[in-house]
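From the pipeline queue, job 12 of 40. The input is one protein chain; the requested action is below.

Action: predict structure.
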Amino acid sequence: MLSLADLALLMLCVTFFAWLWRGHGIREQALKLARRHCEKLDIELLDQNVALRGLRLRRDQRGNLRLAREYGFEFTVTGDQRLAGCITLFGRQQGKIELDPHPFTPRDEEQVLAPSAQVVRLADWRREHPQTSSKPH
């Protein structure tokens, strides 16, 4: 028969292994988010891996103090230089992603500028769009 101390020890072990199992799922989520971020910036995620750097108390987007997992990864832009990146997760919710300073290619600059980001002079716009009705003052 199990004593109360044995049952408490068993529950502690089950809780610990459940926490480890959940942490593995969160690591997979961090890898997926890091991979997606690197693809978006047209940089290469090296080793297809993220590594847990630590657990820390951090503030989330709402300013609440929460337990955060920080994962580190490496990436390259040119293929000859390894640069470091870091992703923060609050549970499965993404925090911030930080990358070491790296060079951008002209292709990256084209993605930053939106095609609709054109400057229109007010006088030109008024000439092209005359008012059809006059407002009484």
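Job complete. DSSP finds three helices and five strands in the chain.
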